[in-house]
Every structure is written in structure tokens, then in C-alpha cells.
Write a structure and sequence with these properties.
The protein has 611 residues and is of the alpha+beta class. The protein has 21 helices and 23 strands. Strand 15 and strand 16 form a beta hairpin. The termini are far apart. The relative contact order is 0.07. It binds adenosine-5'-diphosphate. Adenosine-5'-diphosphate (ADP) binds next to helix 2.
């Protein structure tokens, strides 16, 4: 017998688990059945693809036994089983990336800890909510050695070699005193029918029956064991879909939407997709886990294939079950398979069109979806060309008129006849944007401008180019069309030259324009230079060696300041005003000032002198 320490993350997780106030403890059974079902899937795949297992007597079954005297609950499967390495890798460590930071982030927050079980999917370890000791007996298919794994939570577990006849796994839960309910047949039955009715393998409960005064033990099948996605839509209720969703995709919440499709004819397949209500914890990690499973003729093939759906749909959970694919092809070949390609294409189209339907039918619910996944969906602009229009129709924006979200269609509908372009402004947050000097002219003319405050917007939005033949344009790029401005600018040459001289280290140019109505000055960037939000984005993406990009200072000739400065020769004053103007313009853009105290001092002394 050997003793091992748990990976730190695991012992922290167990600790949280044992002290968790999570009320929905029954889900441990769902998790263990889910593991058994996966193990049966894996063995089935072997029997179909591996010569060595060609004649294997595959007879899938999950059996649940409660022992009231010993207070144990045992879950038995004849799936693929585990060898010693598997045990150490699977029941001593957590492979999920991001686990550490996730656990850190919820450690202090009791309320968030119930997310642990819901959102994170703690799997096997959830059994420690109801058991103070767990024994696993297991033998891997193709091996002649069997093992016992045992742990009383805490920080360690033990593994020893044992004798075990049959291939598969037995999980024995030594139930805690407050978990007696899980010894009752009716309780077990109700949990199984609730969550596991449609996992594709039969689940039995061992029951004791009195017959002619004699006790008899019999096994009773509890679930339907029909793969839910193969059941016809008309026979399924929302509850069926949701329970299957929770069981299969480890969510504690119902899904927001399910999309069940059966295609017959030249291309035969079934897909069942779910849109979750809440984003999974790893949504923004490069190494996020795939949420879709691939089956061929009901045989499980993979659940880690990220190519099944485009990355911008990585929040979708679901199942592809395809008829006409060979079972024993390698992943690489599968990727190029024309049937799979067609099914994938049809599925993306279907998901997007269902989202569009939701948007039109129930905008409030759609906004719920958009709040969680809109940012991710937007990434599709860079890669989705087949369904570009649908994707664009799914985007929502705030505007200078209202914080209520609108889509591009509504925006275009509201455009006045002489407005030719769709205007937008990207920046740090809604309130900075809303007060941006760049909007003054638009506000005055009553033109709606889309305000975008996602970090990715500065990169992604320019890629839209056009929507319904209308081009998108950043308001910072709109040149003023007033011909008189050149004349006016001439009148200000003497002062702009002086300001430019004063600020030459910080700005590329100083220009008089009629963009501004209220503010004295603002910053814009040369057409070929990345603007401020783009620079921020590039920095965030790790580009630290960006050359310094100088903005252009645009000034408002109708502002009192310039009327007064226009013919001034007071260089000291111009100097003071120039730096202040630049600082104010920077603040308006959401930039940080290098020397804030210098700024406040200048403002204060100016205040004092004006009193
Ligand atoms: P997950 O199921 O999300 O991978 P778990 O903690 O529930 O996480 O399980 C960890 C791993 O342990 C599984 O991926 C599997 O490799 C192994 N495992 C758990 N239960 C069984 C079982 N009944 N039969 C075979 N392997 C199992």
C-alpha cells in the first residue's frame, strides 16, 4: 500500500467541499453516474476501434447499491476502469486549467462557493459532500491488475493492489451521518430519474424484496436509457431537456435555450445544442474546455474537439451525433471529412439563426444572453464570413441617445435620410464616451452614435466595414465638411503655432476644426496611427514595444479661451493654457495624466486668479 498527497488544489477543493453550505448535495450522484457513463462510452469506443477488444463482451450497465447496515452507497460500472497511473492522475489531481486561480478567487466568498459546484463542475470530488470516506475498486480493460484507492478527504489518499474479477469501477461511499437519505430507494430513484433518465446506459438499483417470507435481492432498471437527443422532440418536455443538460454539462442552472435538430436525407445527423445562462469560468482562457461532444451513430467519439464549433461559439454546450462517419478514423482525417464539415456549417447557421429568433421574440432574454456572451460572439466578426449578416444582426450597442441596447438594424432604421454612414466611438467606459468632445457635433445635430466600451472593440469594430451597404465610421475619423473652417483657421495661425511649439514633444499637430461645440480641445489620431483605445488593446495583448504615437490636438475656435488668446502675445499665459488644454483633452479620452498634482495645482492657481 502506498500513500500519496493530493495536489494542493485538490485538498483546497475538498476542504471547501466539506464545509460547503451548498444545499443541492444530491448532485454528487449525478456526477458519479456521469463518470460511469463516460467510462462506458470509452470502452464502447475501444471495442469498435481496437483489434484487441474486438470480441469483448460489452454489456454496459450501472448499478447502485445501498447498504443500510454499513451506511454505504456503492456505484458500480463495467466501463473502462482505471490503472494505477489513471488513479493518481484522475483522483489526486485536477487537470482543468485555471483551477488554482478559480479556487483562490472564491476562497473568501461563501456565496460564490456554491458556484464551485454549479459552474465549475467538481465531478468526483463532490462525493465528499455526503461521504467522509471513499473507496474505489477498479480494474482497467486490457489489464490484469486491479487497484483500491481510498481516502478520507484531508490531504492524502492510499492506493493498493487488490484482486478483482471484473473490469470496471466500484465507488463505495461511506456516508456521513447527515446523509442517510441516500440509502433510501425512493430518494435514489428520484435523483436518477431527474438527472439521468436519458443517459444512454441502463442504471439499476439493487432492491430487497420479501417473497413468501424470504428476502430476495433483485435489480430494477430506473432510467429510460435512451439517448435524449435521439428521442423525438414531441416526446420531450423542457424539464427533460434541462435535466439532461445539467447531468451532461455539469451546470446547476437550467439552460437559457436549447436547439434540437434532426436532419434526414443525404446528410443524416442529430444535434442538440444548449446556450447556458452563465458563462463558464474558463470562457476567456486560451485553454478553455470544449463544450461539445461528438458521437457517431450514438457511439461517443470525443469531448475535447475544439474544431467542432468556431471559437466565438465556445460557450455553446451540446452534442453532435452523425450517421455516416467511420468510427475508427483518426482525428486529423476526421477534421477534413466532408460530411463533418457540412454538419458543422449547418450547425453554426442554425445556432445563429436561433439566436436571432430569440432576439426578435424575447428581447429581454436575449439581452441576458448578450450580457454573458456578447463579447465572445463579437469575436466572430474576425472569422465568420458565411453568416456575416446574421452575426452582425446579433450585435447590440449603447448609443449617445440611450444606454438601452440597440442592434444595427434598429440604428439604420432610425437614421435620417441624409445620414449616409453608421457612426461609432470606441472608448473606455460608457460615461467617458457619453461625455466625449467627439460627440458634440453629433449631439447638436441629433445624430445617433454607437458607443462601444469593450476592450476588443477597437480591433474588431473596424473589421465590420459595412452593414446593409452602409459603412461604419468612427466619429474620430469624420472630417469636418465646413469650408469656412480654413478661413477661420488662418485667423488662429499665430496662436496655434505657439501652442504647437509649446507642446511639440507631446502632439503631432495642432489644428483648428469645427468638430467641437462645447469643449475647447480634443485629441484625435492620424488616419494611419492606432487610436488610444487601440493602443491600450495592443498593450494588453502584450505588445510593450509600441513606438510612441502622438495625437493631434484639435481646438475649438468658437470657444471663449481661443477668442481671448487669439491675438495674445503673453507667452507665459499661452504656455500655461496649452499644457492645461492638453491635460483636459487627455482626461476626456480616459487617459491617465503623468503628473496629476501638477495639473491640479495649475487648475487651483487659475481658479484663485479668476476670483
Ligand atoms: P471529470 O469527469 O470532469 O473529468 P472527475 O473528477 O469527475 O472529473 O473525474 C476525474 C477523472 O477520473 C475522469 O476524467 C476519469 O478519467 C476518472 N474516473 C472517474 N470516475 C471513473 C469511472 N467510474 N470509471 C473510469 N474512470 C473514472
Amino acid at each position: 500500500m502506498s500513500k500519496y498527497e493530493y495536489q494542493t488544489e485538490v485538498s483546497e477543493l475538498l476542504n471547501l467541499m466539506i464545509h460547503s453550505l451548498y444545499s443541492n448535495k444530491e448532485i454528487f450522484l449525478r456526477e458519479l453516474i456521469s463518470n460511469s457513463s463516460d467510462a462506458l462510452d470509452k470502452l464502447k469506443y475501444l471495442t469498435l476501434t481496437d483489434e484487441k477488444f474486438k470480441d469483448y463482451d460489452y454489456n454496459p450497465k450501472i448499478l447502485i447499491k445501498a447498504n443500510k447496515d454499513e451506511k454505504t452507497l456503492t456505484i458500480i460500472d463495467n466501463g473502462i476502469g482505471m490503472d494505477e497511473e489513471d488513479l493518481k492522475n484522475s483522483l489526486g489531481t485536477i487537470a482543468k486549467s485555471g483551477t488554482k486561480s478559480f479556487i483562490e478567487s472564491i476562497k473568501e466568498d461563501k456565496e460564490k462557493q456554491s458556484d464551485l459546484i454549479g459552474q465549475f463542475g467538481v465531478g468526483f470530488y463532490s462525493a465528499f459532500m455526503v461521504a467522509d470516506k471513499i473507496t474505489v475498486l477498479t480494474k482497467k480493460a486490457g489489464s490484469n491488475k486491479a487497484y483500491k484507492w481510498e481516502s478520507e478527504a484531508g490531504s492524502s489518499y492510499e492506493i493498493s493492489q487488490i484482486e478483482k474479477e471484473s473490469v470496471g469501477t466500484e465507488i463505495i461511499l461511506h456516508l456521513r451521518d447527515d446523509a442517510d437519505e441516500y440509502l433510501q430507494d425512493y430518494r435514489l430513484e428520484s435523483i436518477i430519474s431527474k438527472y439521468s433518465n436519458h443517459i444512454p446506459f441502463p442504471i439499476f438499483i439493487e432492491k430487497e424484496e420479501e417473497k413468501d417470507g424470504k428476502k430476495e435481492i433483485k435489480e430494477e432498471q430506473i432510467n429510460k436509457a435512451s439517448a435524449l437527443w435521439r428521442v423525438s422532440k414531441s416526446e420531450l418536455k423542457d424539464d427533460d431537456y434541462n435535466n439532461f443538460y445539467k447531468q451532461t454539462f455539469h451546470d446547476s442552472d437550467d439552460s437559457l435555450l436549447h436547439i434540437h435538430t434532426r436532419a434526414e436525407g443525404t446528410l443524416e445527423y442529430t444535434t442538440l445544442f444548449y446556450i447556458p445562462k452563465k458563462a463558464p469560468f474558463d470562457l476567456y482562457r486560451v485553454d478553455y474546455q470544449s463544450g461539445v461532444k461528438l458521437y457517431v451513430k450514438r457511439v461517443f467519439i470525443s469531448d475535447d474537439d475544439k474544431e467542432l464549433l468556431p471559437t466565438y461559439l465556445r460557450f455553446v454546450r451540446g452534442i453532435f451525433d452523425i450517421e455516416d462517419l467511420p468510427l475508427n478514423v483518426s482525428r486529423e482525417i476526421l477534421q477534413e471529412n466532408i460530411i463533418l464539415t457540412k454538419v458543422k456549417k449547418a450547425s453554426v447557421k442554425k445556432i445563429l439563426s436561433e439566436l436571432k429568433k430569440l432576439k426578435n421574440k424575447d428581447f429581454d432574454k436575449y439581452k441576458e444572453f448578450y450580457a454573458e456572451f456578447g463579447k465572445v460572439l463579437k469575436e466572430g466578426i474576425m472569422s465568420e464570413f458565411d453568416n456575416r449578416d446574421t452575426l452582425l444582426e446579433l450585435l447590440l450597442f449603447k448609443t449617445n441617445k440611450s444606454e438601452e441596447l440597440v442592434d444595427l438594424e434598429t440604428y439604420v432604421k432610425n437614421m435620417s435620410e441624409d445620414q449616409k454612414e453608421i457612426y461609432y466611438l470606441v472608448g473606455e467606459d460608457y460615461s467617458t464616451l457619453k461625455n466625449s468632445p467627439h460627440l458634440e457635433e453629433f449631439n447638436e445635430k441629433g445624430i445617433e452614435v454607437l458607443l462601444m466600451d469593450d476592450e476588443v472593440d477597437s480591433i474588431i469594430i473596424p473589421q465590420i466595414h459595412t452593414f446593409k451597404e452602409k459603412s461604419l465610421k468612427s466619429v474620430t475619423e469624420v472630417e469636418s465638411d465646413d469650408k469656412d473652417i480654413e478661413e477661420i483657421a488662418k485667423e488662429f495661425t499665430s496662436v496655434t503655432v505657439k501652442i504647437k511649439e509649446e507642446l511639440k514633444d507631446e502632439v503631432k499637430d495642432v489644428k483648428v476644426t469645427n468638430r467641437l461645440k462645447k469643449s475647447p480641445a480634443c485629441l484625435v489620431y492620424d488616419k494611419n496611427d492606432p487610436d488610444f483605445s487601440m493602443q491600450q488593446m495592443l498593450k494588453q495583448m502584450g505588445q510593450t514595444d509600441l513606438p510612441e504615437v502622438k495625437p493631434i490636438l484639435e481646438i475649438n475656435p468658437s470657444h471663449e479661451i481661443f477668442k481671448k488668446l487669439k491675438d495674445s502675445d503673453d507667452l507665459a499665459k499661452i504656455k500655461e493654457v496649452s499644457t492645461l488644454l492638453l491635460d483636459i483633452a487627455k482626461l476626456n479620452e480616459g487617459m491617465k495624466l503623468k503628473d496629476l498634482s501638477d495639473f491640479t495645482q495649475k487648475v487651483s492657481s487659475l481658479l484663485a486668479s479668476s476670483l
